[in-house]
């Protein structure tokens, strides 16, 4: 079990590195494209690909940022009921919430993949890209969320089981 945990930690570290660095590079590229787009609009002939590339980069940055925020637990939460509960209630809510996310995203995985593969027939308007390539980042999001919430589900379940074992007299 320790080997599996170490493997999950390595995968998690790789995903975090990917999300932070790729999003940083994409943000810099989006800013450069934005400035180039303004210069061309006012001093030369307007370029169509600049706007579309900015939208593509914004989409990818948003999804990568969402994955990173979830991974580091820095996302906005409405957790008044959660914080006012006992440790057992928190674990039960973690298990229920994680199970709902994992099951929902797992159920939506195949239809999402089929739709993205279907988009392979459509091309981008201004860029030489297929729309399946543009929206493929959503599959990374799905896999990342399933991975993160599966880890949370397993960890919370283990803690709850350990808590119950301590309360049962031997």
Number of strands: 0
Low-pLDDT segments:
none
Main sheet specs: none
Order of helices and strands: HHHHHH
The CA-CA distance between the termini, in Å, is 26 Å
- Annotation field: number of helices: 6
Shape: elongated
Work out the radius of gyration: 21 Å
* Oligomeric assembly: single chain
Range of helix content = over 70%
Question: Given the helix and strand composition, which structural class is it?
Answer: mainly alpha
Beta-strand content estimate: under 5%
Spell out the blueprint of helices and strands:
Layout: H1 2-43, H2 48-71, H3 80-83, H4 87-118, H5 131-134, H6 137-167
Write a compact overview of the structure shown.
The protein is mainly α and 170 residues long.
Write up what this structure looks like.
- Helices cover 81% and strands 0% of the residues.
- By secondary structure, the protein is mostly helical.
- The chain folds into two domains: 1-76; 78-170.
- The mean pLDDT is 83.
- It is elongated, with a radius of gyration of 21 Å.
- The longest helix has 42 residues, at 2-43.
- It has helices spanning 2-43, 48-71, 80-83, 87-118, 131-134, 137-167.
- The relative contact order is 0.11.
Which tags fit this structure?
single chain, 170 residues, mainly alpha, 6 helices, elongated
